[in-house]
Design brief:
two-stranded parallel ribbon; 6 helices; 3% strand
Length: 240
Amino acid sequence: MGPLARRASARLARARRICGSVLLAMIAALPLQVAAQESVAPTPDEAPAATLPSPIVTLDQERFFRSSAYGKAALARAEAEAAALSAENRKIEAALEAEERDLTTRRANLKPEEFTPLANAFDTKVEEIRAAQDAKSRAVTRHLEETRQKFFESAVPVLADLLRDTGAVAILADNAIILSLSSLDITDEAVARMDIALPDLPPEELDAAPAELTPTPAEPPEPLLQGPAPTPQPTAPATP
């Protein structure tokens, strides 16, 4: 082999070595490029392959009750009861004020031993009325709480079905969560299903009222203040 042939052969061998090195480098880099491509987040136009259901969902209990048809009816009834009680309180207050003014006027014509029993009776009556009206106010609140409790008891099977349909394993109250995705909240769907299961207060509940708020058979009206009549002052016998 002549010098020219040997130089050509050497150049070919060198070229093959260079090409081989470049090819090996490309092959070695290929998994890295593939891995890098796989780690890139999908663009907004690319839909995820699958979305796994969350094992936990949240429920806004207050909105669940207040937004439901049953809850709205219960709240409206409680507001009506409170308004009626407020009107009754104003009427009683006006009557007591009138009685107090009358007692003050009568005081000028009564002896201390005659006025004291009247004043004590008035004070006792005021305290009794206040206690009775406070009991009615508590009854309105308790009535609403009892209705709310019945609502959540009736909601158990509805929420159980919703839990099964969503594929979740637990429902957490939203006020026990520091941060969560809005997609985990099932309140709106729970309200919609509850309105189907319990569209309104039951008939027996619509007219129901706490015993403290149910008027008793009316007795003959009496003045709020009753006391002994002023003792007539003895008159001096006429001088003949």
